[in-house]
Protein backbone atom coordinates (compact mmCIF):
# COMPACT_ATOMS: atom_id res chain seq x y z
CA UNK A 1 0.00 0.00 0.00
CA UNK A 2 1.16 3.50 -0.76
CA UNK A 3 -0.58 6.85 -0.74
CA UNK A 4 -1.39 8.50 -4.05
CA UNK A 5 -2.06 12.20 -4.64
CA UNK A 6 -4.62 12.98 -7.32
CA UNK A 7 -3.29 16.10 -9.02
CA UNK A 8 -6.74 16.83 -10.42
CA UNK A 9 -7.83 17.45 -6.82
CA UNK A 10 -4.68 18.78 -5.08
CA UNK A 11 -4.73 22.54 -4.47
CA UNK A 12 -1.19 22.74 -3.11
CA UNK A 13 -2.08 23.80 0.42
CA UNK A 14 0.89 21.95 1.91
CA UNK A 15 -1.07 20.38 4.75
CA UNK A 16 0.05 16.84 3.95
CA UNK A 17 3.70 17.89 3.93
CA UNK A 18 3.29 19.60 7.29
CA UNK A 19 1.76 16.49 8.80
CA UNK A 20 4.18 13.98 7.28
CA UNK A 21 7.18 15.49 5.47
CA UNK A 22 8.84 12.08 5.35
CA UNK A 23 6.23 10.96 2.81
CA UNK A 24 4.77 14.09 1.16
CA UNK A 25 6.56 16.92 -0.57
CA UNK A 26 5.02 20.06 -2.02
CA UNK A 27 6.87 21.02 -5.19
CA UNK A 28 7.20 24.22 -7.15
CA UNK A 29 4.59 23.09 -9.63
CA UNK A 30 2.06 23.50 -6.82
CA UNK A 31 1.30 19.83 -6.28
CA UNK A 32 2.11 17.44 -3.48
CA UNK A 33 4.12 14.33 -4.34
CA UNK A 34 4.67 11.07 -2.53
CA UNK A 35 8.43 10.87 -2.10
CA UNK A 36 8.57 7.48 -0.45
CA UNK A 37 6.35 4.56 0.28
CA UNK A 38 5.66 4.77 4.01
CA UNK A 39 6.46 1.95 6.36
CA UNK A 40 4.22 1.10 9.29
CA UNK A 41 5.80 3.87 11.35
CA UNK A 42 4.23 6.55 9.16
CA UNK A 43 0.87 4.91 8.62
CA UNK A 44 -0.96 6.94 11.26
CA UNK A 45 0.50 10.19 9.94
CA UNK A 46 -0.53 9.35 6.39
CA UNK A 47 -4.04 8.55 7.64
CA UNK A 48 -4.09 11.94 9.34
CA UNK A 49 -2.94 13.65 6.13
CA UNK A 50 -5.74 11.89 4.25
CA UNK A 51 -8.26 13.13 6.80
CA UNK A 52 -6.90 16.67 6.84
CA UNK A 53 -6.51 17.15 3.08
CA UNK A 54 -9.17 19.75 2.26
CA UNK A 55 -9.99 18.29 -1.14
CA UNK A 56 -9.72 14.57 -0.41
CA UNK A 57 -6.89 14.27 -2.92
CA UNK A 58 -4.96 11.55 -1.09
CA UNK A 59 -5.96 7.90 -1.10
CA UNK A 60 -4.31 4.60 -0.27
CA UNK A 61 -3.73 2.37 -3.24
CA UNK A 62 -2.55 -1.23 -3.45
FE1 LIG B 1 -2.66 18.76 -2.01
FE2 LIG B 1 -4.24 17.70 -0.14
FE3 LIG B 1 -1.61 17.82 0.26
FE4 LIG B 1 -3.09 20.04 0.29
S1 LIG B 1 -3.21 18.31 1.75
S2 LIG B 1 -1.11 19.78 -0.75
S3 LIG B 1 -4.60 19.60 -1.28
S4 LIG B 1 -2.69 16.62 -1.32
TrEMBL record:
Pfam families: Fer4_13 (PF13370). The keyword Iron-sulfur applies. One of its GO terms (molecular function) is 3 iron, 4 sulfur cluster binding. Its cofactor is [3Fe-4S] cluster. Residues 1-29 form the 4Fe-4S ferredoxin-type domain. Coiled coil: none annotated. SUPFAM superfamilies: 4Fe-4S ferredoxins. Keywords: 3Fe-4S, Electron transport, Iron, Iron-sulfur, Metal-binding, Transport. Transmembrane segments: none annotated. Ferredoxins are iron-sulfur proteins that transfer electrons in a wide variety of metabolic reactions. This is Ferredoxin. It comes from Candidatus Aquicultor secundus.
Amino acid sequence: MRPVVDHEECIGCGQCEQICPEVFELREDGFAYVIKAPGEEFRAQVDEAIEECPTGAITWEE
